[in-house]
Design brief:
By secondary structure, the protein is of the alpha/beta class. It folds into two domains: about 130 residues, no CATH class; about 240 residues, Metallo-dependent phosphatases (Purple Acid Phosphatase, chain A, domain 2, 4-Layer Sandwich), CATH 3.60.21. Helices cover about 40% and strands about 15% of the residues. The strands form two sheets. It has a six-stranded mixed β-sheet. It has a six-stranded mixed β-sheet with strand order 6-7-8-9-11-10, with no helix packed on it. Strand 7, helix 8 and strand 8 form a beta-alpha-beta unit.
Length: about 375
Protein backbone atom coordinates (compact mmCIF):
# COMPACT_ATOMS: atom_id res chain seq x y z
CA UNK A 1 0.00 0.00 0.00
CA UNK A 2 2.84 2.39 0.87
CA UNK A 3 4.55 1.68 -2.45
CA UNK A 4 1.28 2.35 -4.32
CA UNK A 5 0.73 5.60 -2.42
CA UNK A 6 4.31 6.70 -3.10
CA UNK A 7 3.89 5.93 -6.80
CA UNK A 8 0.65 7.93 -6.98
CA UNK A 9 2.19 10.91 -5.18
CA UNK A 10 5.21 10.77 -7.50
CA UNK A 11 2.98 10.71 -10.56
CA UNK A 12 0.86 13.56 -9.17
CA UNK A 13 3.98 15.59 -8.42
CA UNK A 14 5.44 14.99 -11.87
CA UNK A 15 2.21 15.92 -13.63
CA UNK A 16 1.96 19.11 -11.56
CA UNK A 17 5.54 20.04 -12.43
CA UNK A 18 4.69 19.64 -16.12
CA UNK A 19 1.52 21.76 -15.80
CA UNK A 20 3.20 24.43 -13.65
CA UNK A 21 6.11 24.72 -16.09
CA UNK A 22 3.78 24.94 -19.09
CA UNK A 23 1.67 27.64 -17.45
CA UNK A 24 4.76 29.58 -16.42
CA UNK A 25 6.15 29.54 -19.96
CA UNK A 26 3.02 31.29 -21.16
CA UNK A 27 2.62 33.56 -18.14
CA UNK A 28 6.09 35.12 -18.38
CA UNK A 29 5.40 36.09 -21.98
CA UNK A 30 2.40 38.12 -20.80
CA UNK A 31 3.95 39.23 -17.49
CA UNK A 32 7.75 39.48 -17.90
CA UNK A 33 8.24 40.59 -14.28
CA UNK A 34 6.42 37.55 -12.83
CA UNK A 35 8.28 36.33 -9.74
CA UNK A 36 9.02 32.61 -10.21
CA UNK A 37 9.19 31.88 -6.45
CA UNK A 38 5.85 33.57 -5.73
CA UNK A 39 4.31 31.74 -8.67
CA UNK A 40 5.68 28.40 -7.42
CA UNK A 41 4.33 28.98 -3.89
CA UNK A 42 0.85 29.87 -5.13
CA UNK A 43 0.77 26.87 -7.44
CA UNK A 44 2.00 24.50 -4.68
CA UNK A 45 -0.64 25.84 -2.25
CA UNK A 46 -3.41 25.09 -4.74
CA UNK A 47 -2.00 21.71 -5.78
CA UNK A 48 -1.64 20.55 -2.15
CA UNK A 49 -5.02 21.87 -0.98
CA UNK A 50 -6.61 18.52 -1.74
CA UNK A 51 -4.68 16.87 1.10
CA UNK A 52 -5.78 19.26 3.87
CA UNK A 53 -8.91 17.14 4.45
CA UNK A 54 -6.64 14.50 6.01
CA UNK A 55 -5.19 16.94 8.54
CA UNK A 56 -6.56 17.75 12.03
CA UNK A 57 -7.63 21.32 11.20
CA UNK A 58 -10.86 23.22 12.04
CA UNK A 59 -13.94 22.21 10.05
CA UNK A 60 -14.21 25.61 8.36
CA UNK A 61 -10.61 25.49 7.14
CA UNK A 62 -11.01 21.90 5.99
CA UNK A 63 -14.23 22.73 4.14
CA UNK A 64 -12.69 25.74 2.37
CA UNK A 65 -9.52 23.91 1.38
CA UNK A 66 -11.55 20.91 0.24
CA UNK A 67 -13.58 23.23 -2.02
CA UNK A 68 -10.35 24.51 -3.58
CA UNK A 69 -8.88 21.02 -3.83
CA UNK A 70 -11.85 19.33 -5.49
CA UNK A 71 -12.17 22.09 -8.07
CA UNK A 72 -8.43 22.02 -8.65
CA UNK A 73 -8.59 18.30 -9.50
CA UNK A 74 -10.96 19.05 -12.38
CA UNK A 75 -8.73 21.88 -13.58
CA UNK A 76 -5.68 19.62 -13.16
CA UNK A 77 -7.14 16.86 -15.36
CA UNK A 78 -8.12 19.22 -18.17
CA UNK A 79 -4.86 21.19 -18.06
CA UNK A 80 -2.85 17.97 -18.19
CA UNK A 81 -4.78 16.56 -21.15
CA UNK A 82 -4.90 19.81 -23.09
CA UNK A 83 -1.22 20.65 -22.55
CA UNK A 84 -0.28 17.16 -23.72
CA UNK A 85 -2.40 17.64 -26.86
CA UNK A 86 -0.92 21.12 -27.43
CA UNK A 87 2.66 19.86 -27.07
CA UNK A 88 2.00 16.94 -29.41
CA UNK A 89 0.58 19.33 -32.02
CA UNK A 90 3.58 21.64 -31.62
CA UNK A 91 5.92 18.67 -32.00
CA UNK A 92 4.12 17.55 -35.16
CA UNK A 93 4.32 21.12 -36.43
CA UNK A 94 8.08 21.15 -35.92
CA UNK A 95 8.55 17.73 -37.54
CA UNK A 96 6.61 18.87 -40.60
CA UNK A 97 8.42 22.28 -40.51
CA UNK A 98 5.08 24.09 -40.26
CA UNK A 99 6.41 25.52 -36.99
CA UNK A 100 10.06 26.64 -37.03
CA UNK A 101 12.45 25.64 -34.29
CA UNK A 102 12.98 26.83 -31.68
CA UNK A 103 9.27 27.33 -31.06
CA UNK A 104 8.41 31.03 -31.50
CA UNK A 105 7.20 32.78 -28.33
CA UNK A 106 3.91 33.65 -30.03
CA UNK A 107 3.12 29.98 -30.68
CA UNK A 108 3.87 29.11 -27.06
CA UNK A 109 1.79 32.02 -25.74
CA UNK A 110 -1.27 31.22 -27.84
CA UNK A 111 -1.10 27.52 -27.07
CA UNK A 112 -1.09 28.26 -23.33
CA UNK A 113 -3.89 30.82 -23.66
CA UNK A 114 -6.07 28.39 -25.65
CA UNK A 115 -5.49 25.65 -23.06
CA UNK A 116 -6.51 28.02 -20.25
CA UNK A 117 -9.63 29.19 -22.11
CA UNK A 118 -10.73 25.64 -22.97
CA UNK A 119 -10.15 24.50 -19.37
CA UNK A 120 -12.19 27.43 -18.06
CA UNK A 121 -15.04 26.71 -20.49
CA UNK A 122 -15.08 23.01 -19.58
CA UNK A 123 -15.14 23.77 -15.85
CA UNK A 124 -17.97 26.28 -16.16
CA UNK A 125 -20.03 23.90 -18.29
CA UNK A 126 -19.24 20.97 -15.96
CA UNK A 127 -20.26 22.99 -12.90
CA UNK A 128 -23.53 24.02 -14.51
CA UNK A 129 -24.35 20.51 -15.70
CA UNK A 130 -23.65 19.18 -12.20
CA UNK A 131 -26.50 21.32 -10.86
CA UNK A 132 -29.01 19.61 -13.16
CA UNK A 133 -30.97 16.53 -12.07
CA UNK A 134 -32.61 14.55 -14.83
CA UNK A 135 -35.17 11.75 -14.72
CA UNK A 136 -34.61 8.64 -16.83
CA UNK A 137 -37.12 5.84 -17.28
CA UNK A 138 -36.96 2.12 -18.02
CA UNK A 139 -39.69 -0.46 -18.62
CA UNK A 140 -38.81 -3.96 -17.43
CA UNK A 141 -40.86 -6.94 -18.54
CA UNK A 142 -40.14 -9.89 -16.27
CA UNK A 143 -39.75 -13.36 -17.72
CA UNK A 144 -42.81 -14.62 -15.85
CA UNK A 145 -44.66 -11.62 -14.56
CA UNK A 146 -46.42 -12.18 -11.25
CA UNK A 147 -48.09 -8.80 -11.38
CA UNK A 148 -51.72 -8.15 -11.99
CA UNK A 149 -50.59 -4.54 -12.38
CA UNK A 150 -47.23 -2.80 -12.67
CA UNK A 151 -44.92 -1.70 -9.86
CA UNK A 152 -43.01 1.56 -10.10
CA UNK A 153 -39.55 1.58 -8.52
CA UNK A 154 -37.53 4.78 -8.19
CA UNK A 155 -33.77 4.27 -7.90
CA UNK A 156 -31.18 6.76 -6.69
CA UNK A 157 -27.61 6.28 -5.50
CA UNK A 158 -24.42 8.08 -4.55
CA UNK A 159 -25.72 11.01 -2.53
CA UNK A 160 -22.35 11.28 -0.74
CA UNK A 161 -23.72 13.47 2.03
CA UNK A 162 -20.96 15.67 3.41
CA UNK A 163 -18.80 15.59 0.29
CA UNK A 164 -21.16 16.75 -2.44
CA UNK A 165 -24.00 19.18 -3.08
CA UNK A 166 -26.62 16.48 -2.38
CA UNK A 167 -27.49 17.94 1.02
CA UNK A 168 -28.21 21.31 -0.58
CA UNK A 169 -30.00 19.67 -3.51
CA UNK A 170 -32.04 17.29 -1.36
CA UNK A 171 -35.29 19.33 -1.60
CA UNK A 172 -35.15 19.03 -5.41
CA UNK A 173 -34.23 15.34 -5.21
CA UNK A 174 -37.13 14.53 -2.91
CA UNK A 175 -39.52 16.60 -5.01
CA UNK A 176 -38.36 14.76 -8.13
CA UNK A 177 -38.94 11.40 -6.45
CA UNK A 178 -42.40 12.33 -5.18
CA UNK A 179 -43.50 13.63 -8.58
CA UNK A 180 -42.96 10.11 -9.94
CA UNK A 181 -45.41 8.66 -7.38
CA UNK A 182 -43.28 5.57 -6.69
CA UNK A 183 -44.41 2.32 -5.12
CA UNK A 184 -40.89 1.65 -3.84
CA UNK A 185 -37.80 3.85 -3.52
CA UNK A 186 -34.39 2.13 -3.60
CA UNK A 187 -31.16 3.85 -2.57
CA UNK A 188 -28.25 1.81 -3.90
CA UNK A 189 -25.48 2.88 -1.55
CA UNK A 190 -23.01 5.69 -0.84
CA UNK A 191 -25.57 7.71 1.04
CA UNK A 192 -22.74 9.17 3.13
CA UNK A 193 -19.07 9.87 2.47
CA UNK A 194 -17.08 8.06 5.16
CA UNK A 195 -18.03 10.40 8.02
CA UNK A 196 -21.54 11.58 8.92
CA UNK A 197 -20.02 14.49 10.83
CA UNK A 198 -19.19 16.11 7.49
CA UNK A 199 -22.90 16.83 7.03
CA UNK A 200 -23.91 20.42 7.75
CA UNK A 201 -27.48 19.83 8.89
CA UNK A 202 -28.38 16.14 9.39
CA UNK A 203 -31.72 16.95 11.06
CA UNK A 204 -32.93 18.93 8.03
CA UNK A 205 -31.89 16.06 5.75
CA UNK A 206 -33.78 13.59 7.94
CA UNK A 207 -36.96 15.69 7.73
CA UNK A 208 -36.68 15.84 3.94
CA UNK A 209 -36.07 12.11 3.57
CA UNK A 210 -39.05 11.38 5.80
CA UNK A 211 -41.21 13.37 3.37
CA UNK A 212 -40.64 10.88 0.54
CA UNK A 213 -44.04 9.43 -0.38
CA UNK A 214 -44.24 5.79 -1.45
CA UNK A 215 -46.71 2.92 -1.36
CA UNK A 216 -44.37 0.37 0.21
CA UNK A 217 -41.49 2.34 1.66
CA UNK A 218 -37.90 3.48 1.13
CA UNK A 219 -35.13 0.86 1.19
CA UNK A 220 -31.35 1.12 1.01
CA UNK A 221 -28.19 -0.93 0.82
CA UNK A 222 -24.74 0.18 1.92
CA UNK A 223 -21.97 1.39 -0.36
CA UNK A 224 -18.22 1.52 0.09
CA UNK A 225 -18.41 5.04 1.57
CA UNK A 226 -21.14 4.17 4.10
CA UNK A 227 -18.83 2.75 6.77
CA UNK A 228 -16.08 3.88 9.10
CA UNK A 229 -15.93 5.29 12.58
CA UNK A 230 -19.37 6.93 12.41
CA UNK A 231 -21.15 3.84 11.05
CA UNK A 232 -23.47 3.53 14.10
CA UNK A 233 -24.53 7.17 13.64
CA UNK A 234 -25.18 6.50 9.94
CA UNK A 235 -27.49 3.62 10.88
CA UNK A 236 -29.39 5.82 13.32
CA UNK A 237 -29.69 8.55 10.68
CA UNK A 238 -31.31 6.09 8.25
CA UNK A 239 -33.63 4.73 10.93
CA UNK A 240 -34.78 8.24 11.85
CA UNK A 241 -35.28 8.95 8.12
CA UNK A 242 -37.72 6.01 7.79
CA UNK A 243 -35.28 4.29 5.44
CA UNK A 244 -35.17 0.51 5.84
CA UNK A 245 -31.60 -0.74 5.57
CA UNK A 246 -31.14 -4.22 4.12
CA UNK A 247 -27.76 -5.71 5.11
CA UNK A 248 -27.69 -8.96 3.12
CA UNK A 249 -31.35 -9.20 4.02
CA UNK A 250 -34.62 -9.20 2.15
CA UNK A 251 -38.16 -7.97 2.49
CA UNK A 252 -41.21 -9.26 0.62
CA UNK A 253 -43.21 -6.41 -0.88
CA UNK A 254 -46.97 -7.00 -0.79
CA UNK A 255 -46.41 -10.68 -1.59
CA UNK A 256 -45.42 -9.54 -5.10
CA UNK A 257 -41.61 -9.41 -5.10
CA UNK A 258 -38.59 -10.01 -2.90
CA UNK A 259 -36.32 -6.98 -2.46
CA UNK A 260 -32.78 -7.90 -1.41
CA UNK A 261 -30.12 -5.46 -0.19
CA UNK A 262 -26.44 -6.44 -0.28
CA UNK A 263 -23.58 -5.25 1.87
CA UNK A 264 -20.77 -3.71 -0.14
CA UNK A 265 -17.70 -5.93 -0.40
CA UNK A 266 -15.05 -3.24 0.22
CA UNK A 267 -16.30 -0.67 2.77
CA UNK A 268 -13.88 2.10 3.66
CA UNK A 269 -13.40 1.73 7.41
CA UNK A 270 -15.69 -1.31 7.62
CA UNK A 271 -19.28 -1.88 8.70
CA UNK A 272 -18.48 -2.73 12.30
CA UNK A 273 -19.01 -6.46 12.74
CA UNK A 274 -20.98 -6.81 9.50
CA UNK A 275 -19.41 -8.54 6.52
CA UNK A 276 -20.80 -9.43 3.12
CA UNK A 277 -21.94 -13.05 2.89
CA UNK A 278 -22.34 -15.33 -0.11
CA UNK A 279 -25.47 -14.72 -2.16
CA UNK A 280 -26.48 -18.39 -1.74
CA UNK A 281 -26.68 -17.83 2.03
CA UNK A 282 -28.88 -14.78 1.47
CA UNK A 283 -31.19 -16.75 -0.81
CA UNK A 284 -31.51 -19.65 1.63
CA UNK A 285 -34.00 -17.65 3.73
CA UNK A 286 -36.08 -16.45 0.77
CA UNK A 287 -39.19 -18.29 -0.32
CA UNK A 288 -39.26 -19.07 -4.02
CA UNK A 289 -41.98 -18.19 -6.49
CA UNK A 290 -41.70 -14.39 -6.44
CA UNK A 291 -39.49 -12.14 -8.59
CA UNK A 292 -36.17 -11.25 -6.91
CA UNK A 293 -34.94 -7.66 -7.12
CA UNK A 294 -31.46 -6.89 -5.77
CA UNK A 295 -29.86 -3.64 -4.62
CA UNK A 296 -26.06 -3.95 -4.74
CA UNK A 297 -23.91 -0.85 -4.74
CA UNK A 298 -21.23 -1.84 -7.25
CA UNK A 299 -21.81 -3.47 -10.65
CA UNK A 300 -18.48 -5.26 -10.21
CA UNK A 301 -20.61 -7.99 -8.61
CA UNK A 302 -22.77 -8.44 -11.70
CA UNK A 303 -21.54 -11.98 -12.39
CA UNK A 304 -22.69 -13.21 -8.97
CA UNK A 305 -26.31 -13.22 -10.06
CA UNK A 306 -27.82 -16.04 -12.09
CA UNK A 307 -31.21 -16.60 -13.64
CA UNK A 308 -32.91 -16.92 -10.25
CA UNK A 309 -32.72 -13.12 -10.09
CA UNK A 310 -34.93 -10.81 -12.13
CA UNK A 311 -33.66 -7.25 -11.67
CA UNK A 312 -30.38 -5.86 -10.33
CA UNK A 313 -30.00 -2.24 -9.21
CA UNK A 314 -26.53 -0.70 -9.02
CA UNK A 315 -24.80 2.66 -8.52
CA UNK A 316 -21.15 3.42 -7.69
CA UNK A 317 -19.70 4.21 -11.13
CA UNK A 318 -21.01 7.79 -11.52
CA UNK A 319 -20.45 6.84 -15.19
CA UNK A 320 -17.01 8.34 -14.69
CA UNK A 321 -18.69 11.71 -14.01
CA UNK A 322 -16.81 13.53 -16.78
CA UNK A 323 -14.88 12.88 -19.96
CA UNK A 324 -12.46 11.09 -20.24
CA UNK A 325 -13.15 9.25 -16.96
CA UNK A 326 -16.36 7.81 -18.46
CA UNK A 327 -14.16 5.91 -20.93
CA UNK A 328 -12.33 4.33 -17.99
CA UNK A 329 -15.51 3.15 -16.22
CA UNK A 330 -16.69 1.68 -19.51
CA UNK A 331 -13.54 -0.45 -19.58
CA UNK A 332 -13.70 -1.34 -15.88
CA UNK A 333 -17.32 -2.53 -15.73
CA UNK A 334 -19.35 -4.78 -18.03
CA UNK A 335 -22.20 -2.36 -17.30
CA UNK A 336 -21.16 1.11 -16.16
CA UNK A 337 -24.45 2.90 -16.84
CA UNK A 338 -28.00 2.34 -17.98
CA UNK A 339 -29.72 -0.90 -18.94
CA UNK A 340 -27.84 -4.16 -19.37
CA UNK A 341 -28.77 -7.79 -19.90
CA UNK A 342 -26.08 -10.31 -20.75
CA UNK A 343 -28.50 -12.70 -22.47
CA UNK A 344 -32.17 -13.69 -22.43
CA UNK A 345 -31.70 -15.93 -19.38
CA UNK A 346 -29.77 -13.35 -17.34
CA UNK A 347 -31.33 -10.81 -14.97
CA UNK A 348 -32.08 -7.30 -16.12
CA UNK A 349 -29.58 -4.81 -14.66
CA UNK A 350 -29.75 -1.05 -14.30
CA UNK A 351 -26.76 1.06 -13.26
CA UNK A 352 -27.48 4.64 -12.27
CA UNK A 353 -24.86 7.35 -12.71
CA UNK A 354 -25.91 8.72 -9.32
CA UNK A 355 -27.94 11.66 -8.15
CA UNK A 356 -24.95 13.77 -7.14
CA UNK A 357 -21.21 14.09 -7.72
CA UNK A 358 -18.21 12.79 -5.82
CA UNK A 359 -14.83 14.45 -5.56
CA UNK A 360 -14.61 16.76 -8.57
CA UNK A 361 -17.96 18.65 -8.62
CA UNK A 362 -18.52 18.60 -12.39
CA UNK A 363 -20.48 16.57 -14.96
CA UNK A 364 -19.38 16.43 -18.60
CA UNK A 365 -20.91 13.76 -20.81
CA UNK A 366 -22.82 12.34 -17.83
CA UNK A 367 -25.77 13.48 -15.73
CA UNK A 368 -27.12 13.42 -12.21
CA UNK A 369 -30.22 11.29 -12.42
CA UNK A 370 -33.28 9.91 -10.72
CA UNK A 371 -34.23 6.58 -12.27
CA UNK A 372 -37.83 5.49 -12.69
CA UNK A 373 -38.31 1.78 -13.38
CA UNK A 374 -41.69 0.33 -14.28
CA UNK A 375 -41.77 -3.41 -13.64
CA UNK A 376 -44.45 -5.28 -15.57
Amino acid sequence: MLIGAAAMLTAYGGANYYIARSLYQGAVLAFPNLNAKVYACIYAFIALSLFVRFLPVPFGVKSFMNWIGTHWMGIFVFLLLLFLIADILILLGRVTTIIPGPVPPGVRFWSVLIVILLTTALMFYGKYNATQIRTVSYDIQLKESAFAYEIKVVLIADLHFGYSTAEKDLPRIVQGINELEPDIVCIAGDIFNDDINLMRNPDAAIDLLRSIKTTYGVYACLGNHDGGKTFPEMQRFLQRSNIILLNDEHVTIDNRLNLIGRLDSSPIGGFGSLERIDISDVMASISQGLPNVVMDHSPSHLEEYGNEFDLLLFGHTHRGQFFPMNLITKIMFAADHGYYQKDADSPHAIVTSGVSTWGIPIRIGTNNEIVCITIR
